[in-house]
Design goal:
Helix content is 29%, strand content 21%. The strands form 3 sheets. Strands 1, 2, 3, 4, 5, 16, 17, 18 and 19 form a 9-stranded mixed beta sheet that branches. Bound molecules: N-(aminocarbonyl)-beta-alanine and zinc ion (3 copies). Its cofactor is Zn(2+). One of its GO terms (molecular function) is metal ion binding.
Length: 517
Amino acid sequence: NTAESGVNPDDVKITFGKQEDILIRGGVVVNADMQFKSDVLIKNGKIAQVGLNILSPGARILNATGMYVMPGGIDPHVHFELPFMGTVSKDDFLSGTQAAVAGGTTFVMDFAIPLGREISPLEAFEQYKKLGEAKSVCDFGLHVAITKLNQDGDREKIVRDMAEVVKRGVNSFKFFMAYKGTLQIEDHDLIRAFALARELGAISMVHAENGDLVQEGQRKLLRQGIHGPEGHSFSRPPEVEAEAVHRASVIANQVGAPLYVVHVMSQAAMEEIARAKAKGYRIVGEAIAAGLTLNETAVFDRDWNRAARYVMSPPIRSIDDQHALVNGLKTRTLDLVGTDHCTFDTEQKRLGVDDFTKIPNGVNGIEERMTALFDRLVHTGKLTPSDYVRVTSTEAAQIFNIYPQKGVIAVGSDADVILLDPSKKKVVYHTEHHINIDYNVYDHWSFWGSVETTISNGRIVWNNGTLYTEQGTGRFVPTPAFGKMFHGLESETFHSSDYFAGHSNGKKKGVNRNGSY
Ligand code: URP
Ligand code: ZN
Ligand code: ZN
Ligand code: ZN
């Protein structure tokens, strides 16, 4: 049905990939709050008009009959060219964002991680921002990871960096409670860092696993002679994830810091979020595509290369966990969905061929998230199309405080728009995907709901199976502090120094509202 959907391929005047006036006609616009039949006019990279029977002579016409016209997906959790576990993840900001737009995602948030090199959070932020600006084909934002508070004996350096990156457009800090010896931050630093983030109006994000227990579990399994990928799962059971969620939620609540738990993978961990929400804590839970679609049997594949593809942390769990997570989205115990896209090819995975603790952790998903979720959530009848838009786009835009610039089809918003055909199946083949690895964890899977056209800032970057991208067209979008998780806290006086008076050279000082001292 290529002739009637999307752009007519016979049109010789096609200027794909360039900003142009686009009139999307005859589709059903789906926002998080409602859906309605409407045309959408795009001018100068923005949505200019939403309504019936729009006329705009000279605009390129996209026929959206039978399609949903939705805000482009926002993936709040990706890792491009991440130096990690002795190697560097394969997809960079170019292949990663190309795959994103091919799958209907138009905004990604990566993590600037000062890892494997003695650089500061501010330097990591500037490095990642530069990489993203040079290579991205869609807009992006950044979180900054804090792995310690003491750099070169200077306990104030990181504190200054945190304030500075917030000024430069970061409203979220990531803390790893696992990966002991590399990324893991200790609890006493976590308390202070949450308080600092709270003071700055930035969200505290946690990778929640008890890294000390994981390390003990790994040692025990290796001693027992378990070296294969299944050891990865055995060393990180759900309790080890749930305990860290519980601990993080209590610490965050004690210091009044809003908390975002990334990649919730188990029912046990999810129940800790439900408990915290019931107590009134400011907490949100992120599911990832892999957790909602895959299950642990893959890690037990007799073929080592195949099993290793599914090694990520926290591990992919049981089918019961998978179903619980899907239902958690429905009941809003979980708030939104990312991917944690972090890819290593077979050769890189084989770094751990004799020792599961050395298998680089991570799975793909950026190109499949939108279609996989449409299939599992909407096609199954569990979520409405509006709920789908909320968990794949709007909620992230609101949490990271870039709504309504992103996350909605409305006049004045960025023209990040997708046309999704709910009656067409998308079949995934690793030979056709746009990511930079030699396999795909969804190889030969088919999903109801195919993204036929993707528009990024008024450019048609994906249409009928073809990419029209230009490297470097993506912009860094600053995420302002004090977003919706801080509602009601904006005007409260808060001194993080109250939580670590003893640490701060005895000096009691706070960071003021502008992030200066
Ligand atoms: O296994 C994973 N999740 N790899 C990416 C890094 C992280 O922990 O998010
Ligand atoms: Zn993680
Ligand atoms: Zn608990
Ligand atoms: Zn991650």
